[in-house]
Design goal:
Blueprint (H helix, E strand, L loop, with lengths): L2 H11 L3 H15 L3 H13 L3 H14 L4 H13 L3 H14 L4 H13 L3 H14 L4 H13 L3 H14 L4 H13 L3 H14 L4 H12 L3 H14 L3 H24 L3 H29 L5 H4 L2 H27 L2 H4 L1 H7 L1 H6 L6 H26 L3 H18 L2 H7 L1
């Protein structure tokens, strides 16, 4: 028996992943390659939020035995921790095929179904996992989330409270309780639950994200936005696209009908409200994140990415307002028009929160920076008197951003 690995396992159970990594590496140096050593490294990296390293060590374990259940499970877990959900599902399915009686794999599969808004299947997987192990945390959490979205909130609460009675120090349970409270609009209670999850696990990123949402939910207009967002998460990807297409067609029909009936101002108002709704639903989270910069708790709950997105979105709003006011004050439509591009850029910058891989992030960053560059060039054209070019470029950037609004869902789902 490898004493280094025994020590590494003990350290993992004590929440000391850095020390566990050291002993696992000593085992690899002195005893040679082993699946168990790479599996321990994978767990250590997951605990340290080093997703890429976790994937690398899990891949090494799988290389040694491509038919091993635990190696496929660890590979799935590593991908899950690295937010590569499609790859995670592939390995969890393979692990289930090799050994279908482990509640852990059913729990992760249930959580993946929740990400796809497949609530019935998530509940089925969670219940099956709980039939194998009635105290499995992932299955408990997945069951509660699925019940909540199936309008069985009382059962969801009972599931979580029962589990917390058995494991009051489990951060994941407190996080999911906070999430159910958040969806019900009980922001004070959800702040406490997310705070408790972070007390138990200070680097729990999902709990930080939940805390940010709960803090913003205290603003009435953002609370309304959250209700809309939760409603949309209950729908499948196809249903969401159906609503977007339907909304566009309704406003188009209403606007044209009003214009034909001799009400051009009402027709413009319908179109304006539609655009405001689109921009607000994309930008609300980042706009309110900026307000949290001034909050004693909120500014620490925001991660670096959220802060950068909030700065980018609100900077575009500020530039848009300044250039619009300047154009109106000078009576120059050409100078005011680039504001459309700045406002339109709310959409791509806000969508960065949905991008889970580097290449997708870079696609969005390059597009957004390109739009901003064209906006600045449009302002220059307006200032030198080339009004036609300024107007064409401004409307072009705005249309490009509106068309882009269909892209993030596709990138996130694929």
């Amino acid at each position: 028996m490898d004493g280094y690995l025994d020590r590494a396992r003990l350290l993992l159970s004590q929440g000391r992943p850095t020390d566990a990594e050291d002993f696992a590496r000593k085992s690899l140096e002195e005893a040679g390659e082993s699946q168990e050593a790479f599996q321990i490294l994978t767990q250590a990296y997951i605990q340290m939020d080093k997703g890429k390293d976790a994937v690398g060590s899990a891949r090494e374990a799988l290389r040694l035995d491509a038919d091993d259940y635990l190696s496929h499970f660890m590979m799935g877990w590593a991908y899950f921790a690295n937010r590569q959900y499609k790859q995670a599902e592939q390995h969890f399915v393979q692990a289930r095929e090799i050994y279908p009686d482990d509640a852990d794999v059913w729990g992760f599969l249930a959580l993946l179904e929740i990400r796809k808004s497949a609530w019935d299947k998530a509940l089925e997987y969670a219940n099956h996992g709980l039939s194998l192990n009635s105290e499995n945390i992932n299955c408990v959490n997945a069951r509660a989330r699925a019940l909540l979205h199936s309008k069985r909130g009382q059962e969801a609460n009972e599931t979580l409270e029962s589990a917390l009675g058995r494991a009051p120090e489990n951060a994941s349970l407190h996080y999911h309780r906070g999430y159910t409270q958040l969806e019900k609009g009980d922001f004070a209670a959800s702040i406490q639950s997310f705070g408790e999850a972070l007390r138990l696990e200070p680097n729990f990123e999902e709990a930080k994200e939940g805390l940010v949402q709960a803090l913003k939910g205290r603003y009435k207009i953002y609370a309304f936005f959250l209700k809309y967002a939760f409603f949309m998460t209950r729908l499948t990807s196809g249903q969401r696209y159906g609503i977007f297409i339907g909304g566009y067609l309704v406003q188009l029909f209403a606007g044209r009908s009003l214009a034909a009936a001799g009400y051009p101002l009402l027709s413009g108002l319908v179109f304006g409200l539609y655009l405001f709704f689109i921009l607000f639903t994309w930008g609300a989270s980042s706009i309110f994140n900026a307000l949290l910069f001034l909050h004693p708790i909120g500014r620490h709950a925001l991660n670096v990415r959220e802060k950068r997105i909030a700065i980018a979105v609100n900077t575009n709003i500020l530039f848009g307002l300044v250039i619009a006011v300047a154009g109106i004050a000078t009576g120059s439509l050409a100078l005011a028009a680039p504001a459309l591009g700045f406002f339109g850029c709310i959409i791509p910058y806000s969508s960065l929160s949905l991008m889970e891989t580097k290449w997708k992030t870079w696609v969005v960053v390059v597009f957004s920076a390109g739009v901003n560059t064209v906006c600045i060039y449009s302002i220059i054209q307006a200032l030198i008197g080339n009004a036609d070019a300024a107007l064409s470029l401004s409307f072009g950037t705005f249309i490009a951003c509106m068309l882009y609004s269909w892209v993030p869902g596709f990138l996130a789902d694929n």
